[in-house]
Amino acid sequence: xxxxxxxxxxxxxxxxxxxxxxxxxxLDLNSEYLYLLxxxxxSDTCSVATFNDEIIGFxxxxxxxxxxxxxxxxxxxxxxxxRGQNIAFKTIMNIFNSNENIKYILxxxxxxxxxxxxxxxxxxxxxxxxxxxxxAFSLEDxxxxxxxxxQYLIGPINNK
Length: 160
Known about the structure:
Protein name: L-2,4-diaminobutyric acid acetyltransferase
Distance between the termini: 31 Å
Largest sheet: 7 strands, mixed
Number of domains: 1
CATH class: Alpha Beta
Family: Belongs to the acetyltransferase family. EctA subfamily.
CATH architecture: 3-Layer(aba) Sandwich
Helix content: 25-40%
CATH topology: Aminopeptidase
CATH superfamily: Gcn5-related N-acetyltransferase (GNAT)
GO molecular function, one term: diaminobutyrate acetyltransferase activity
Number of strands: 7
Structural class: alpha+beta
GO biological process, one term: ectoine biosynthetic process
Shape: globular
Oligomer: single chain
Strand content: 25-35%
EC number: 2.3.1.178
Strand order of the largest sheet: 1-2-3-4-5-7-6
Number of helices: 4
């Protein structure tokens, strides 16, 4: 059956996730080791979208150490061929639906990343809650040329 399946990542998915991020050319490419950690240590707060056994989407996240009701979304990647099908939204929802303690979703997004901005706005609308924006990291916070990162805080969310 040709359907998109959303699930927790497995260790063997790390190479495909690395290649998905690399092919996209937009997100910061992390080390292969980090993607292995995300697929093992952080698999409860990460999700993959698979189509015909191919990884076509990935969301990495973690619960804030000092606020275990807050899910930080680190990276959102969707294969170019599958964009515009709500895969990013559904992949984040897969994480949310398997973590009943989440009351807030937090992320940072660069101003030029309009698709991610729309995903977080859609999440706020879906949960019928507010979204707050503020600069999280300015140009001076980075060594190399990097856009500012705007923090998006969604919540509180009535989870179940």
